[in-house]
Design brief:
The protein has helices at 2-57, 150-153; strands spanning 68-71, 75-80, 89-95, 110-116, 122-127, 129-135, 141-142, 158-165, 178-184. With 189 residues, the protein is of the alpha+beta class. The longest helix has 56 residues, at 2-57. It is rod-shaped and about 100 Å long. It starts with a helix and ends in a 5-residue tail after the last strand.
């Protein structure tokens, strides 16, 4: 009878050790997945913001007359000799609709597009928020309503961009956001 109790005790303790090891393995797996997806999200955010920053610094380069064609809260269209070939290009940043993103579980995901001239639009990144604010030469924020006039768009000297990206799939009910905000003052505006 004593051996049976020892065998039963050892089996129960062994079972608990196996459950602890299994739980630890699942936790390590979840943590590594979270780290991988967060790193991917951060690299995606960095890449997209580098593209935006590079393009906006060139806004108005070698262009005469109206340099910013459209200035909205989530879209900007400007002229520049983007590729330095002597021809003025039109660069247009805008966001797609959240309804177009059916492949991700994040309900806030949308696409950020960049179109150069009449080429088809290229996907810059999957984002959850893209916001642009415009400033004049002394740092006053210009209202979006006034920017419908080309005379008012000539006053733009600074562009603050805000980009927020989140994971496409939630981990522990969180989408782990990455945010980037910067004021860019193109030399040619």
């Amino acid at each position: 009878m004593g051996q049976l109790l020892e065998l039963l005790g050892v089996s129960i303790i062994g079972g608990f050790i196996m459950l602890i090891a299994l739980a630890l393995n699942m936790q390590i797996s979840d943590s590594s997945r979270e780290i991988f997806q967060s790193t991917y999200n951060q690299r995606s955010a960095i890449t997209s913001t580098q593209v935006i920053e590079y393009d906006l610094y060139k806004a108005g380069y070698a262009a005469a007359g109206e340099k910013i064609i459209q200035a909205d809260s989530n879209a900007v269209k400007f002229r520049s000799d983007f590729d330095n070939n002597g021809t003025i290009d039109t660069i247009y940043y805008y966001t797609g609709a959240t309804s177009a993103m059916t492949s991700t579980s994040n309900p806030n995901d949308k696409q950020l597009f960049r179109r150069i001239n009449s080429q088809s639009a290229n996907l810059v990144s999957i984002i959850t928020r893209f916001n642009i604010v415009y400033y004049d030469s002394i740092g006053n924020q210009l209202s979006y309503l006034s920017l419908s006039s080309s005379d008012q768009r000539l006053k733009i000297r600074g562009i603050r961009t805000y980009v927020k990206t989140e994971l496409t799939d939630a981990i522990n009910n969180l989408y782990n956001p990455v945010e980037w905000r910067q004021i860019i003052r193109p030399k040619n505006l």
